[in-house]
Amino acid sequence: MNCETCQLKELVVEPPEIREVLRSILHTILFHRALGLVRPKDVECELFDIIYVQCEDHELEKKIDEKINQFIGWVEKHPNRKSQVCISFYEVKNKHATWFGNKIERFYWEQWYINLHIVSPKPHGKSHNTKAHVVTGENAFEESNSRCAALGSSLREVLLQIINFVNEKKDHIPPLQNSEIVSFPYEISTPR
Amino acid sequence: MATSPSHSSPESAIIEQVITEFFAKSLHIILESRSPYVSSRNYSVDQFMSSPSSSCSSSSSMPRDKWFNLALRDCPAALENFDIWRKSNLDPLVIDIVLIRRPLVPDVARPLGGCLLRNFSGNRDLALEPKSWKIVERWIVQYERHKSSSSKNHKEIRKCGTKNNGGSSCSSETAFYKKTYERYIILFRSLYVLIRLLPMYKLFRELNSSGQICPLSLSHRISSSIQPFTQEDEAKMNQFTFVPIDTPRGRLSLSVQYLRTLEDIRSEPSAPLSLQFILDYVGSPTTDPFRRLKSLPSARSSPPLVSFTRQHSWSNDHGALASVSHCPSVACSEARGIRCNPSLCLPPLTHHNDHSPPVISESQNAAVTHKNNMSFDEFWPSPFSPTSSPSSPAHLPGQRSPNALQSGSSQIDIAKACPNTASQTQAYSSEGKQQIKMDTLRCGNYRTGLTLVKHHRGFPSGKDDTEKLAELPSSSTQRPRSKSSSGLSLSDKFDDCGFACPFADYKDVTGSCNRRSPDAVIGAVVRMLTTAAPLRQGLSDLCRPSQVFMDESLNPCVQHDQDNTEQSECRASTSEILASVLLKSKTAAEGLEELRRYKEMKESILKRGASWSSDVDSGPKVCRQ
């Protein structure tokens, strides 16, 4: 079975935006792979003008939030770096008895790489001149808004990229074996 | 449902059913995200399945909304349209999402399906612009039958059988069907996500959730033929095509053409509307009475006692008396006009309703598509209508919400103004404190509002404007009506209370209020005054019982052996005199001045609180005299 890999477009994000970005991307991917009966829930991003969809599954949300927290913790220790979050779907094959015990094999059939470039927010320029400081503050505010809007646009492109990938590649998906919401086992990997 | 006579096996029936449900699900997802909710018919899955018009329901093995493992809320527009459309699975299903722009009628206070709007545009002779509409999205769902019987699907079926370790053809077919169904599931997941990423969804949510009247509205058109776009329109559109999914005898496809951007449409000029405040707005008790709206016209012309007949939607169970106690005079209430009532005209000492400025957004969504009996291939206009989606309640400004008002026009409508009944208010003069309290509580059981219509380029945005206005917190029982504006029209509400529409004529409104409950007004004034410091020198003796009463509240050590009846009698006589003296028209400025003076006097009284204790002992004697 082929393992299809999708490298998502790199996003330049600041630490406060990591949570929203990862939530929207991970939930969108999992919504396409949780093929059990779901009642979709619209979620509006607080930072961006985007509405994404998630399955109404508390366990899933909890697991995603845990992983995001893990990633944010890593980012705090390693600021201003490029990093990846990987979500993989696999099948568990028959256990193979080995000398050391039963070995569970995982056959990954799909992997998504979320590429993030974490940057620190720019500090406001210091100025003793009140007027200049106000102007600098306004410029920084406008710059921040435009950067946020650009990130929102890039995030939308990433979500469309997910849809395109899902739309084009379906042959590698294993048959549904259960009626659970999350149809296939998956794991979310963050840098350590 | 059309079926080929050569494919009458149960398997064929299942395949046909799946194809039919594919069309239905597509329509459902699309219209759910593009067609404003129609509240006229409340569909449930059970209702649909028992509907005689649905030939598919009897053969459906599972509820409709669970098809393809995507449970969706009911969408009456989709269900109705599908029943009408479904004649043959071979016909393409073309869904055009249409954006309609229509100007607001100038200088006419007319009910728009129960929603009233007063346009005080400076140009009163503005001619009506012709209605314009534009197809902003086109969704096409098609089923193409294979011409050749030996299609590649047979290879697919055999492949599935091979994957299943060379099982029988039956199992390979089953595996193929399962695989195909799985692809349908994934396709609908993608459709559901995609439709929310397209530019129109944002507009849909704005129109569907905001209780504003907007020149833009959404509608849809369903047909079985594809009318090509012009070259110019085509150039502005993007296309997305889902990979077709093969069935044993054909192929299902779904595609969309959509406008790349809506900025062109939003930037088209439209008739501007000037701001117009409805003068008889009554705000919330938490409104700062010293915060004046600069654009407020002079309140001199406002007739007296208007505001005291306005009832409000917030609950005054826990603070009405206390909140009332600080209103200095009737003048304060009268003059304010827009924002005054017995329980409102106060500094919020108790802060029992700690709300931000009120936004009353009462079912003003103009984007509702009215359609119950549409014929196939017919265009559904979307007239202005007060109904809006109950699933998208309005949110208070400042709250992060998809239903938050955004840039454009803002509108707070007078939802309902039902004056209190005379029977309730007449009791105050005879029953005393308890009845006064009841009146106060009832005053909070009705809603009033302010209509501010402002039209900007593009979409409505009441955020900045509404934040400036006092908020009207509604009672718990009435809040859903005021926020979600679901299903009820203003005309219905007005009809319920038998109250003339306040938008129609301000004078008529005030006159009717006066006629209906003067006692309520008097009672409210009296209640305020009995617990207030004297405003005039001549009333100081009469006000002593109230001062004593107030002082008792400050000195818990004072014995409370006074007869309540005596107090009420004393208060009743005092209130009658005060009412007669104080029922004079005053300007807002005078009212505010009196309030300020009252505050100063109150402070001084508090400081001398201890010196009143000796007077309190002789208080009843004074009263009896």
UniProtKB/TrEMBL annotation, chain A:
<dbReference type="Pfam" id="PF07855">
    <property type="entry name" value="ATG101"/>
</dbReference>
<dbReference type="InterPro" id="IPR012445">
    <property type="entry name" value="ATG101"/>
</dbReference>
<comment type="similarity">
    <text>Belongs to the ATG101 family.</text>
</comment>
<dbReference type="GO" id="GO:0000045">
    <property type="term" value="P:autophagosome assembly"/>
</dbReference>
<keyword id="KW-0072">Autophagy</keyword>
<dbReference type="GO" id="GO:1990316">
    <property type="term" value="C:Atg1/ULK1 kinase complex"/>
</dbReference>
<protein>
    <recommendedName>
        <fullName>Autophagy-related protein 101</fullName>
    </recommendedName>
</protein>
<dbReference type="GO" id="GO:0000407">
    <property type="term" value="C:phagophore assembly site"/>
</dbReference>
<dbReference type="GO" id="GO:0019901">
    <property type="term" value="F:protein kinase binding"/>
</dbReference>
TrEMBL record, chain B:
<dbReference type="GO" id="GO:0000407">
    <property type="term" value="C:phagophore assembly site"/>
</dbReference>
<feature type="region of interest" description="Disordered">
    <location>
        <begin position="379"/>
        <end position="410"/>
    </location>
</feature>
<dbReference type="GO" id="GO:0034727">
    <property type="term" value="P:piecemeal microautophagy of the nucleus"/>
</dbReference>
<feature type="region of interest" description="Disordered">
    <location>
        <begin position="455"/>
        <end position="490"/>
    </location>
</feature>
<dbReference type="GO" id="GO:0005829">
    <property type="term" value="C:cytosol"/>
</dbReference>
<keyword id="KW-0072">Autophagy</keyword>
<dbReference type="GO" id="GO:1990316">
    <property type="term" value="C:Atg1/ULK1 kinase complex"/>
</dbReference>
<protein>
    <submittedName>
        <fullName>Autophagy-related protein 13</fullName>
    </submittedName>
</protein>
<dbReference type="InterPro" id="IPR040182">
    <property type="entry name" value="ATG13"/>
</dbReference>
<feature type="domain" description="Autophagy-related protein 13 N-terminal">
    <location>
        <begin position="19"/>
        <end position="261"/>
    </location>
</feature>
<feature type="compositionally biased region" description="Low complexity">
    <location>
        <begin position="381"/>
        <end position="393"/>
    </location>
</feature>
<dbReference type="InterPro" id="IPR018731">
    <property type="entry name" value="Atg13_N"/>
</dbReference>
<feature type="compositionally biased region" description="Polar residues">
    <location>
        <begin position="400"/>
        <end position="410"/>
    </location>
</feature>
<dbReference type="InterPro" id="IPR036570">
    <property type="entry name" value="HORMA_dom_sf"/>
</dbReference>
<feature type="compositionally biased region" description="Low complexity">
    <location>
        <begin position="473"/>
        <end position="490"/>
    </location>
</feature>
<dbReference type="GO" id="GO:0000423">
    <property type="term" value="P:mitophagy"/>
</dbReference>
<dbReference type="Pfam" id="PF10033">
    <property type="entry name" value="ATG13"/>
</dbReference>
<dbReference type="GO" id="GO:0034497">
    <property type="term" value="P:protein localization to phagophore assembly site"/>
</dbReference>
